[in-house]
């Protein structure tokens, strides 16, 4: 097709328009329309110009379109009559990139299309694009002929997979799985460990979030003595303010590492905290750490760079009889370990300490842990000993908590299908009292859609689709899926309630947003009034 200098791409917004563009320039490629046997060839319709191109919904029917639509129907569970060629695979059909890859793999198998390593799924956003993919790889199918021979067999829509039957948990099988718990063990002294690959010297630029107890001040002095440029976060900024500050520091040169000491400070007992206190404490300790590492993600990402956090959990990360001294450090520990998962080349450590007024010694240990021993992420100091953690099978001979009718459970996310199943297992084992919390509204047992969700989901989909159309909306499978998702949560909540009641227990359901502090206060007041304890 010769280049047309007057072509306006905005005149071809969909794949159907793009296909029609080809036909308008090469009418010899247009599939012949079905005509009566006696009709003369001269009656075949002429090619339509691109400006009058027809929408995808009235493109010629052919075997490719039917095969692709049947495949999409199988993958999504929606009948073919609900599938319009202009529907977006992700936005309208809920087909994410993983499922889209499965669709294209199935199409390649059906039509014998070789795998293309350079294929970009984002280039095929709609059903029409997907159909055109087949034509582009198998132009011989453009006439509407189905694949022949082995390909014809493959083109038949695959039978839908039979869903696995629902089952209740097998407590006996669960008991056969070894229970593993983190156990402290002694690590060798740092003098026996190899270098980490990190150097702290002239030219090093290091971010420090200090504590209020003096360890940060001692650390800063030692870093400056080594010749490093220390970039200190001296206040408690908002996330946005901190990002701007870090961006300015980045503009001045590479940043090698971060020392995060905010979790060394004492914290009030959780039961004495107000919601505002809790938010302030988590903001300082872990949310600002998140903003810091997100902003420095492109700097702290290779050997020689580091993130070292310090906590005050007790020296053994809380895994001892005393438990964690300052448990909010657990959030810092968890984030730090997650960063190591994402950036395995970076030296990442969380160093835990027991309560102490010493500052210089802890600062020295933090620097030594940065320069030495790359073989550990979680390390602690308790009673002058270096402690690591390992997951070990445990057999303590104890039967554990006894569950019975007096046991009071509080379960959040109760309308989730997995949580509903767990609730059913707990109810079977106890027959206790259950306080179930979820954002979903309290399910109405008399709602006929909930009954159909369990027994007639396919026809329910069609009815919801028709309701949406009757309301004047542009009905799409994604909108139907949204309605079904709401019904699914209500059904799961109702299943949990019934499981508790069938086990002889009592269920109390609360529709509440866990992010609404006042609403949660009200719910917990009701729980206290009803049960007195959890």
The coarse overall form would be globular
Query: What sequence of helices (H) and strands (E) makes up the elements?
Result: HHHHHHEEHEHEHEHEHEEEHEHHHEH
Relevant CATH superfamily of the largest domain: NAD(P)-binding Rossmann-like Domain
> How many separate domains?
3
- The overall pLDDT average reads 86
Strand order of the largest sheet: 1-8-7-6-5-4-2-3
Uncertain parts: 34-60, 148-166
Structural class estimated from helices and strands: alpha/beta
Distance between the termini: 75 Å
Number of strands: 11
CATH topology of the largest domain: Rossmann fold
Q: In the CATH classification, which architecture of the largest domain applies?
A: 3-Layer(aba) Sandwich
What is the CATH C-level name of the largest domain? Alpha Beta
Query: Number of helical runs?
Result: 16
Strand content: 5-15%
Task: Outline the structure in words.
- There is one protein chain.
- The protein is an alpha/beta fold and 534 residues long.
- The protein has helices at residues 15-25, 63-76, 97-111, 127-137, 150-155, 171-175, 215-225, 239-251, 275-295, 329-342, 360-371, 417-430, 448-455, 457-470, 477-502, 517-531; strands spanning 180-186, 205-209, 229-232, 257-263, 306-311, 347-353, 378-382, 385-393, 408-412, 433-438, 506-511.
- The chain contains 16 helices and 11 strands.
- The protein has 3 domains: 9-155, Orthogonal Bundle (Non-ribosomal Peptide Synthetase Peptidyl Carrier Protein, Chain A), CATH 1.10.1200.10; 182-393, Rossmann fold (3-Layer(aba) Sandwich); 408-531, no CATH class.
- Helix 2 (63-76) packs antiparallel against helix 3 (97-111) and helix 12 packs parallel to helix 15 (477-502).
- The strands form 2 sheets. Strands 1-8-7-6-5-4-2-3 form an 8-stranded mixed β-sheet, with helices on both faces.
- The model is unreliable at 34-60 and 148-166 (pLDDT under 50).
- It is globular, with a radius of gyration of 32 Å.
- The longest helix is centred in the last third of the chain and has 26 residues, at 477-502.
């Amino acid at each position: 097709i010769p280049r047309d200098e007057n072509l306006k791409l905005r005149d071809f917004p969909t794949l159907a328009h793009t296909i029609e563009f080809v036909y308008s320039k090469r009418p010899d490629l247009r599939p012949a329309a079905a005509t009566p046997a006696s009709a003369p060839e001269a009656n075949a319709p002429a090619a339509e110009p691109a400006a009058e191109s027809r929408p995808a919904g009235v493109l010629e029917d052919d075997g490719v379109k039917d095969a692709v639509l049947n495949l999409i129907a199988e993958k999504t569970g929606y009948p073919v009559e609900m599938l319009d060629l202009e529907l977006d695979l992700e936005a309208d059909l809920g087909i994410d990139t993983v499922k889209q890859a499965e669709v294209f793999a199935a199409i390649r198998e059906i039509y014998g299309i070789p795998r293309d390593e350079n294929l970009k799924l984002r280039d095929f956003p709609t059903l029409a694009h997907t159909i055109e993919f087949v034509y582009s790889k198998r132009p011989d199918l453009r006439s509407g002929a189905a694949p022949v021979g082995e390909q014809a067999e493959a083109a038949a829509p695959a039978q839908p997979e039979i869903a696995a039957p629902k089952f209740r948990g097998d407590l006996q099988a669960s008991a056969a799985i070894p229970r593993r718990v983190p156990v402290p063990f002694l690590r060798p002294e740092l003098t026996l460990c190899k270098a980490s690959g990190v150097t702290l010297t002239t030219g090093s630029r290091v971010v420090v979030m200090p504590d209020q107890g003096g360890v940060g001040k001692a650390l800063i002095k030692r870093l400056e003595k080594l010749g490093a440029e220390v970039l200190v976060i001296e206040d408690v900024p908002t996330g946005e303010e901190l990002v701007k500050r870090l961006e300015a520091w980045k503009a001045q040169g590479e940043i090698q590492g971060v020392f995060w000491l905010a979790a060394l400070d004492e914290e009030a007992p959780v039961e004495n905290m107000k919601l505002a206190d809790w938010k302030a404490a988590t903001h300082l300790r872990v949310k600002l750490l998140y903003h810091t590492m997100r902003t420095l993600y492109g700097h702290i990402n290779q050997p020689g760079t580091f993130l070292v956090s310090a906590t005050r959990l007790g020296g053994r990360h809380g895994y001892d009889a005393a438990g964690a001294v300052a448990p909010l450090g657990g959030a810092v520990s968890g984030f730090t370990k997650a960063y190591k998962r994402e950036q395995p080349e970076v030296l990442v450590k969380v160093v835990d300490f027991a309560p102490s007024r010493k500052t210089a010694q802890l600062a020295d240990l933090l620097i030594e842990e940065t320069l030495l021993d790359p073989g550990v992420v979680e390390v602690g100091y308790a009673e002058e000993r270096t402690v690591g953690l390992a997951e070990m099978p445990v057999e303590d001979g104890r039967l554990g908590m006894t569950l019975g009718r007096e046991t009071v459970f509080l379960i959040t996310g109760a309308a989730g299908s997995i949580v509903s199943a767990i609730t059913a297992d707990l109810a079977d084992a106890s027959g206790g009292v259950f306080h179930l919390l979820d954002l979903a509204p309290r399910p109405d047992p008399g709602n006929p859609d909930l009954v159909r969700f369990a027994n007639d989901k396919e026809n329910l989909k069609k009815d919801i689709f028709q309701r949406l159309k009757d309301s004047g909306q542009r009905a799409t499978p994604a909108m139907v899926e949204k309605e079904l998702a709401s019904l699914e949560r209500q059904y799961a909540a109702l299943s949990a309630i019934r499981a508790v009641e069938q086990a002889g227990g009592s269920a109390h359901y609360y529709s509440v947003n866990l992010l609404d502090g006042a609403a949660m206060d009200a719910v917990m007041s009701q729980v206290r009034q009803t049960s007195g304890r959890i």
